[in-house]
User: Fold this.
Amino acid sequence: MHSLDTLSGMTFLLGRPVVGGATDPRLSASVTRLLRPDYHPDRVFEMESGSDWPGDYPGRLILALANLAQFTDAVLNRLAHLITMLPAALNERGYLGPIHREFDEQQLAGHAWLVSGLLAHHRLTRDPESRRMAHRIIESLFLPLIGNLADYPVRSDDGGSDGAASGVIDRRQGDWLLSSDTYCIFIVLEGVVAGFADGSDPRVRTLIDEFLVLLDRDDLVSCRAQLHASMTAARSVLDYAVLTGSDAALNTARRLYQTYRRNGRTLNDATFNWFGRPDSWTEPCAMVDTFLLARGLWWATGNVEYLDDAHRIEINGLGHSQRPNGGFGLDSVTLPDQPWLTTAEYEATWCCTMRGAIGLVEARIGGVRFGPVGTNRLNIDFFHSMQIQDPSGAVELLMATDYPNNGTVVLTATRTPEGRPVQVEFHVPPWVGPEQLSIDTIASTSHRSITFELFEKRVVTVTIPMLERRETDGTVRSFRGPQLLCSDDRPSRTALLPVDDIFSQTEAEAKKFRARITAAPGFPKP
Ligand SMILES: [Zn+2]
Assistant:
């Protein structure tokens, strides 16, 4: 068994990085957004009553706030308020919404976020009540699925994928109430794997194994499965593989990731909303999961291509989808024959704004990895300003950077055990060789990393050259460092702009964002 710290979706209490407007504007904006009145618990439970997705709204918000609480106490009151209001909203079986004779896949999916959120709250506060509520939902809502998943209908091309940005139950088939968010049943794995990590009930493992069979049964591309549901499942299966050492689960996660790379990835490393639907829109919820999946596969396999993908998703997919107000919204699907990146829906308040917060948290807390206690080893995969502490508290250091806007990363060791240095392995982005980095201490280089010692009270500065370049792989795209560059069609704008620059625009500008991301006649060179 591995510790929870190694799970891709549950990196928890690894450290308590500093958050603040000056040091991390994206995280601060997300906190500010989720504390606005439309996410007040009174409003959330008002929306919950009669919701098409029982459990979903409070579940996502509890999960987001429990994650953000690792950075800031500002969210704790809201979080406690939500947890306090929850019991009165539960039905006699301990879950939200109606008690159906059939399996309502939207109700099941919504409760996966709630179970995951309650267990995250329990890990944060040790509140036994949130854990008890989570396991009751698993017992009364999820475990009855055992023996029934084989009957989940194969969804067909006309499987309701004309749905709106938020799915609806649009058909009844056998024992199933089916959603236009096809295969959203897969999201249940989020809650079931969180429950498996938290307990030892063998029935939970049986259910996960039945989900693995279902994931391998259908061709998700021809069935036009929803990307977010598929990627949440893949990432949960990867967590299960890490927990159990199951090669079969790891292979399923890798296969689903390749399916995304081949059939669901846009030119700015965002996601289609459904496989086989380039006429749909992108979804930050799915990008959070492709990011976590790529990063988790990097951890599990050591294949650096996954790390490179995770960087691209974070900066050009998620980085573009976060709006100036801190929320997350939907954009056009960019492809070689659809080169215009435009805002489709400024903000998806009902899902992506909440799930996007988890992408921000994970890119920071999960961007650094300590070796086993006592080894004094630290891997740095992603670059963000934060205070970093190892789980024992023996090592504490600061990372300061404005990456990806520039390539300087400053590391300061504020505490090391008995004055011994920390061995830092700093992973190098793919567009530069390790020898092209500048560093003001002695370092050894390998294929894709540099290694150096960080002594107590000492500062080391690493500078990554943010090289401008073009990539040609069926189309031509321009980059500055990791940032994909774009060109809008206003005559006043002749310079190329990073796609993640939308975050620093005004809301009015972001709402009508429109820029070309592949080279065309007249496209300025970087
Ligand atoms: Zn979403």
